[in-house]
């Protein structure tokens, strides 16, 4: 495409879009919604349009930071930690952006927020660098939008069983219903088949895992469980990767602990803004904060469910070098 040409926003009735979507495999997810398989992952119609808008219209800058994850793998936490790292020493504690807004409003998703309606969104809020964005798409789909720029990508992943249970609670909260077992069971089936937003989970994780091995300067691969067990180590890894390592003085002054405390689930959950606020997409902020426990899925999945999903995980991750 000519550099000056403005990318076209594909509308649902656009011939080009209709032709693309009709060429894609489709399936039905756990709530009976039609999903389309695009670049090996599943998306609803609107999401797919947004991803195409993003791939066509995004103009990357080498200083951009992108937070990537499968939904419910720890995105909110990673967004908060990244903002806190980059913003440290800029604000008095009361005026800190994380005390005034939810991490999802501070770090928008490409496909859920910015490119949901247009391939040329308003970027005036991103006048200072580095710009920080987020996405739930796998690495190969993201890379198409990054067009060989050297943005930094930070990926967080989490045990699939906890992701599933977290997703179940989140979905139920969005639908404003109690978390019913029947929904968990149908979500489980969809997950195992890989037919859920951004799924299959395993291929999603593997795309970033391989990317982190091939391009370690550009892709950092973090695990939710490691962030829980050794938060200091992981936060320092993140800071170094983002080229803003802690100085000796900062370490001595407790800056690492301050950030961890600011971004802790307990602290964020109890902030007024996260008790009452709503994201620009209409999601109650409080829905992003639940228990944050490792292994919570044990309380909900039957031994048979665990066995089945463990077998899929062993099969898919076997030989990848990925440590569970
Ligand atoms: P649970 O449902 O297991 O509690 P995402 O941010 O990707 O949507 O993932 C949501 C999960 O991360 C939820 O897990 C939520 O409680 C947990 N979470 C949110 N903020 C967190 C934080 N600051 N620290 C640890 N976990 C957090």
TrEMBL record:
Q: Which UniProt keywords apply?
A: Transferase
What would you give as a GO molecular function for this chain, any one?
sulfotransferase activity
Classification via InterPro entries = P-loop_NTPase, Sulfotransferase_dom
- In Swiss-Prot or TrEMBL terms, this protein is called Sulfotransferase
Q: Which Pfam families match?
A: Sulfotransfer_1
Q: What is its EC number?
A: 2.8.2.-
Q: Which residues form the signal peptide?
A: none
| Source species taxonomy | Eukaryota, Viridiplantae, Streptophyta, Embryophyta, Tracheophyta
> Does the record's keyword annotation contain Transferase?
yes
> Record keywords: tRNA-binding included?
no
- Entry's family note: Belongs to the sulfotransferase 1 family.
- State the source organism's domain of life: Eukaryota
Q: Which residues form a coiled coil?
A: none
Q: Which positions fall inside the Sulfotransferase domain?
A: 62-321
């Amino acid at each position: 495409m000519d550099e000056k040409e403005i990318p076209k926003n594909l509308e649902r009735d656009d011939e080009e879009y209709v032709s693309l979507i009709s060429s894609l495999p489709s399936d039905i997810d756990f709530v009976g919604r039609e999903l389309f398989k695009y670049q090996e992952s599943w998306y609803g119609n609107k999401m797919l349009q947004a991803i195409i808008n993003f791939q066509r219209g995004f103009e990357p800058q080498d200083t951009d930071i992108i937070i990537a994850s499968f939904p419910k793998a720890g995105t909110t936490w990673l967004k908060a930690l990244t903002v806190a790292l980059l913003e440290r020493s800029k604000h008095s504690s009361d005026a800190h952006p994380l005390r005034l807004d939810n991490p999802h409003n501070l770090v928008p998703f490409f496909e859920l927020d910015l490119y949901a309606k247009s391939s040329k969104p308003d970027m005036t809020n991103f006048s200072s660098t580095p710009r920080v964005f987020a996405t739930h798409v796998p690495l190969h789909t993201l890379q198409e939008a990054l067009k060989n720029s050297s943005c930094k990508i930070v990926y967080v992943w989490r045990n699939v069983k906890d992701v599933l249970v977290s997703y179940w609670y989140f979905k139920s909260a969005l639908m404003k219903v109690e978390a019913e077992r029947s929904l968990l069971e149908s979500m489980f089936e969809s997950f195992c088949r890989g037919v859920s937003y951004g799924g299959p989970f395993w291929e999603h994780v593997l795309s970033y895992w391989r990317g982190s091995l091939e391009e370690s300067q550009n892709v950092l691969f973090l695990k939710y469980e490691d962030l829980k067990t050794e938060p200091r180590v992981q936060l320092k890894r993140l800071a170094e990767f983002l080229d803003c390592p802690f100085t000796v003085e900062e370490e001595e002054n407790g800056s690492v602990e301050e950030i961890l405390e600011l971004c802790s689930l307990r602290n964020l959950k109890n902030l007024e803004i996260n008790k009452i606020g709503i994201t620009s997409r209409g999601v109650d902020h409080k829905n992003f904060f639940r228990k944050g426990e490792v292994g919570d899925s044990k309380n909900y999945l039957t031994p048979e469910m665990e066995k089945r999903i463990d077998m899929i995980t062993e099969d898919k991750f076997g030989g990848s070098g990925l440590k569970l």
